[in-house]
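Q: I'm writing up a methods section and want to include an example of the input and output format. Could you take the sequence below and give the corresponding predicted structure tokens, formatted cleanly so I can copy it straight into the document?
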Amino acid sequence: MSTLITELALERVEFTCGHCWHQWSTDYDVQHYRDDDGRDWEYFSRDGTPVDSPYTPEGAPPCPECGRHWVGHLLARRLIPTPPGLHGTPREPIVDVAGHRPDRHGAPPLDSQAHPQPPGR
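A: Here is the clean output for your methods example:
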């Protein structure tokens, strides 16, 4: 099965617990893709781990204060250009695949919660 990625984005999702009113946010990597049958799909991951959509009850994370689950809402998003990009888009050929920027393999993960929290309302 092959897929065609149609959109890549980073989405910041805000959660407000309806029990204790704690607010927090988390960043999700989102891929939109089309399968061989022409159906469109959405794939979420957090810190490199596949997760259910945070916009559904199945993917709602627990409140860090009381543990109850609450569906999130989109706070902000940033599109990530999909390759090869527009003509003239900066890009570099990879000549030595095995030796290309080996430091990227040992870089620490960028934590999805390593950002300032939105101000309380």
